[in-house]
Specification:
The complex is a heterodimer of chains A (214) and B (283). Chain A has helices spanning 21-29, 35-55, 58-74, 85-103, 111-120, 129-141, 146-157, 162-169, 173-201, 206-213. Helix content of chain A is 68%, strand content 0%. With 214 residues, chain A is mostly helical. Chain B has two domains: 9-54, no CATH class; 62-281, no CATH class. Chain B is 39% helix and 14% strand. Chain B is rod-shaped. Classes of the chains: A mainly alpha (214), B alpha/beta (283). At the A-B interface, helix 2, helix 3, helix 6, helix 7 and helix 9 of A face helix 1, helix 3 and helix 4 of B.
């Protein structure tokens, strides 16, 4: 199996190849007290991105990532060498996020509610359009069922292949595709106004420029 | 299809993912060739993917990274990871006659969760896993000069009330230490010490306060006695409190009184060091 992302290994000043994640994990199990810190250092930004996007809340994401790393630390021996360490870590993080979402019993939202939410969201032209788009995308993702959200975060947001996302989520590739398709279908009407606005801000048409400049 | 004229978004999304069977896919594609509205919907789905991928990636905030480091550090200590500074008590005690006796002392609950190494945990638990009487005997054996000095230094009735060196398990008739008053008082401030605080002046945190309620128990006393024996001196002060959120006993020993230097020892419930022994100032 391939690891979901291509992690550039940090260059070793001595010129020797850096230890692989699997080597580090083996050392951790063997009692090396610094090995796990190195694993954390390598992957924390990516794990943070996954958790933040899945949960849409920095506090929740921080708790989930901490839980996940502590859990990985404890159950390092349960790691099986036939999977990439990164896949294993992603799975632990995603599961920590899904656990949190389930505990908060996020209610699946019906389609008509999604439409209403879309209608409520009026485009607000301002200077921080990009940031606002991010916030709206995050808010829209929260309206999706957890499994669809997790699939879209991995595939569309993090850019992992469907196969890698399937390995992380421990479901068949077809299931990932199906969850992505249904998730995108729900998001399309909610986010359609952003698409229009992005056309506007890019001044791609005389009509857009006219609208923007009044 | 909705209203016999258009396909709904989910069908179009499945088409884009290649999830439709060949016949259905062909049918939808034929429709798309002539239907602007459905073409627009399909473009909308593609735009969703673009929007999702355009959300900027942010690095983990430093505060979160530090929090995780601390949590993992605490996890390492709970799991009984061997600290470099810690003497190998199992090795030292392995030939002791009492090591084979059944454990009669309830062990402190360290943390029931899974820890990475069973071997480590076993080791850390054994630190105090000896019969009470044997522990008392150990205190006598190791006591030596320190305790004798103490007998002279603090006569009956003068000593600060607090833990007794040998602990209550030793019967007064048989113990040679029955008149020994402990030279230290064990406070229980409940303060959560940080490593930084333990480098600075300590007097304000757990300076001697006569009359402050003592909170000694047998295990703490044994541990303090052990550290006192290791360092061959009596502590200035002992505080049962917390260190970075963990139950801890903090002991202060004079390193060099003339230059106001104090040696600080921080141990957990198993009497193993939670922190490398360090020097601090007293005043």
């Amino acid at each position: 199996m391939t690891s979901p992302p291509d992690f550039p290994q940090p260059a070793d000043p001595s010129g020797q190849p850096a230890l692989s994640d699997a080597d580090l994990l083996t050392r951790h199990i063997g009692g090396d007290t610094t090995a796990f810190s190195e694993i954390v250092k390598r992957h924390r930004d990516r794990m943070w991105a996954v958790a933040l996007r899945t949960l849409g809340d920095p506090d929740e994401a921080a708790d989930a990532v901490q839980d996940a790393f502590v859990s990985a630390y404890r159950k390092a021996e349960s790691f099986r060498g036939d999977a990439a360490v990164t896949t294993w870590l992603h799975r632990i993080v995603v599961n920590a996020c899904l656990d949190r979402m389930r505990r908060k019993s996020v209610r699946p939202v019906a389609d008509d509610e999604l439409i209403e939410a879309a209608e409520r969201d009026m485009p607000l032209p301002d200077q921080t359009a990009e940031r606002e788009v991010s916030l709206e995308v995050t808010a829209a993702l929260k309206l999706l069922p957890a499994d669809q959200r997790a699939a879209l975060v991995l595939v569309d947001m993090m850019g992992y292949s469907v196969e890698d996302a399937a390995a992380v989520l421990d479901v068949p590739a077809g299931t990932v595709k199906s969850r992505c398709a249904r998730g995108r279908a729900k998001l399309a009407p909610i986010l359609s106004h952003l698409r229009n606005r992005s056309d506007l801000t890019r001044v791609s048409s005389p009509k857009g420029a006219e609208l923007r400049d009044g | 299809m909705t209203g016999d004229t258009h396909y709904d978004l989910e069908i179009l999304a499945e088409l884009a993912e290649g999830l439709l069977d060949d016949a259905t896919a062909l049918e939808v594609r034929s429709h798309l060739a002539i239907c602007d509205a459905c073409g627009e919907s399909l473009a909308g789905l593609a735009a969703v993917r673009e929007l999702l991928s355009a959300v900027p990636v942010t690095a983990m905030p430093l505060g979160v990274a530090m929090r995780i480091d601390r949590a993992l550090e605490a996890e390492a200590q709970r799991g009984g990871l061997r600290l470099v500074e810690e003497p190998d008590w199992d090795e030292i005690m392995k030939d002791s006659p009492w090591e084979e006796k059944p454990v009669s002392e309830p062990e402190p609950q360290v943390l029931p969760e899974v820890v990475p190494l069973a071997a480590r945990r076993k080791r850390s638990r054994r630190a105090w896993a000896m019969p009470i009487t044997a522990a008392a005997a150990a205190a006598v054996v190791f006591g030596g000069v320190g305790l004798a000095t103490q007998l002279v230094a603090s006569g009956p009735g003068e000593g600060v009330t607090g833990g007794q060196v040998a602990g209550p398990a030793v019967s007064p008739e048989k113990s040679p230490l029955k008149t020994a008053e402990a030279a230290w008082a064990v406070r229980a401030s409940g303060h959560n010490y940080t490593s930084r605080e333990l480098n600075g002046p300590l007097l304000g945190y757990f300076g001697p306060e006569p009359g402050t309620g003592s909170n000694s128990d047998e295990q703490t006393d044994k541990c303090v006695a052990r550290k006192a024996n290791e360092l061959d001196r009596q502590p200035i002060a002992v505080d049962r409190a917390f260190y970075n959120g963990q139950d801890a006993t903090i002991m202060a020993f004079w390193e060099d009184k003339t230059i106001n230097a104090v040696r600080v020892v921080v141990v957990g419930s198993n009497c193993h060091n939670l922190r490398p022994e360090g020097l601090a100032t007293w005043n």
